[in-house]
Design brief:
By secondary structure, the chain is mostly helical. The chain contains nine helices and no strands. The longest helix has 31 residues. The radius of gyration is 19 Å and the shape is globular. The protein starts with a helix and ends with a helix. 41% of the residues are buried. The chain binds NG,NG-dimethyl-L-arginine (DA2). NG,NG-dimethyl-L-arginine binds next to α2, α6, α7 and α9.
């Protein structure tokens, strides 16, 4: 099994994150300080995503990464490989994403001397508290919604990327850096536009149970969110997700391709 894609995914995810971090920090108007936790989590998750995607595509098409650069596999194969990457990455992403959402939603102001402590003092404390209060399954709260969000949208992510590169590259050549940048950016936007409705639901499921259980499941959350707030609830965060999606994924794909290219 080729492992370079896992390593390239690891590094490129971390580079993309450096660009995306300011967007993440303002996304829920919360406090998500420090880079080490998001760096570790995105590197692990991106490594799994790109590694699984590439290896599934290799199994489906018997074409290496380099061969795929000059000859596009079928969109069905690209979509299946992307969806598989989405399913597998969910197992790794779920606890990290839960901790991120809980910390972002923690709106207590900075701790004043003598004032009340925030509920979660940092990522490790957050994980330990969830484990203690909600059990090991608590760390996977919202994982179904996350899988529903990421499976088709990561299929779309790779189809957009490969399709754009293919359309804008002369036959038999490698895509230029500019093409890779724009293709990665569009892949980020397309996947985030498609993912935003379920992103809203996922975040609500992850916050559910903190005080009392409000939703009986993903469908119940969809229905009651719609009843209470109307259709527009599903588009919350669309602008910031798309604005963040372009640069993050442009850099992620550019560095991923660059690393694989330089390793031969
Ligand atoms: C849920 N969606 C839309 C995705 N996972 N899309 C792929 C982009 C991943 C990248 N690390 C990012 O955070 O933009």
């Amino acid at each position: 099994m080729p492992v370079e894609e896992f390593v390239a995914g690891w590094i490129s995810g971390a580079l993309g994150l450096v660009l995306g971090h300011p967007f993440d920090t303002v996304k829920l108007l919360g406090f998500f300080k420090g880079m080490s936790f998001p760096l570790v989590s995105i590197a692990v998750v991106n490594s799994v995503l790109f590694g699984v995607y590439s290896n599934v595509l290799l199994a489906l098409t018997a074409m290496s990464h380099q061969e795929r650069r000059t000859q596009l596999p079928s969109y069905t194969h690209v979509f299946i490989a992307g969806c598989t990457g989405g399913v597998i990455q969910t197992f790794f992403l779920a606890p990290f994403d839960l901790i991120k959402v809980r910390l972002q939603n923690q709106t207590e102001p900075r701790v004043q001397p003598g004032g009340p402590q925030p509920r979660y003092r940092g990522p490790v404390h957050c994980a330990a508290t969830i484990f203690r209060e909600e059990g090991p399954r608590g760390l996977f709260r919202g994982a179904w919604a996350l899988m529903l969000r990421d499976t088709p949208t990561l299929g779309l992510y790779f189809v957009t990327y490969e399709g754009f590169c293919h359309q804008n590259t002369p036959h038999g050549q490698n895509p230029s850096s500019a093409t890779v940048l724009v293709a990665g950016g569009f892949a980020g936007i397309a996947s985030w536009v498609a993912a935003t409705p379920l992103d809203v639901i996922k975040s609500r499921m992850q916050m559910d149970g903190l005080r009392r259980r409000e939703y009986q499941g993903v469908l119940d959350c969809v229905v009651s969110s719609f009843r209470q707030e109307g259709l527009r609830v599903f588009f919350r965060g669309l602008t910031i997700n798309s604005a963040r999606g372009f640069p993050v994924n442009a850099v992620t794909f550019l560095s991923y391709e660059y690393l694989l290219h330089s390793w031969g």
